[in-house]
Amino acid sequence: MKVLAKIASFGLLLAAVLAATLLANVILSKGVFAADHAFARVHMRA
């Protein structure tokens, strides 16, 4: 029973890390995309 609880808590931790990584990835890619878009717009105007 104790081993099962340990595995469950480890899985939960792993899931949390994976979710955080995915969220950070999405935020980063969105930020990079927005910056790239702004950069392209400035270049078009010049």
Q: Average pLDDT value?
A: 90
Strand content: under 5%
Indicate the percent of residues in helices: over 70%
How many strand elements?
Answer: 0
The secondary-structure element order is H
Number of helical elements: 1
Uncertain regions spanning at least 5 consecutive residues? none
**Class inferred from helices and paired strands:** mainly alpha
Largest sheet composition? none
Shape: rod-shaped
Radius of gyration: 20 Å
Distance between the termini: 67 Å
Structure description:
The chain is an all-alpha fold. It has a domain at 19-46. The protein is 96% helix and 0% strand. The chain has one helix and no strands. The radius of gyration is 20 Å and the shape is rod-shaped.
Describe this structure in a few short sentences:
The chain is mostly helical and 46 residues long. It contains 1 helix and no strands.
Task: Describe the secondary structure blueprint for this structure.
Blueprint: H1 2-45
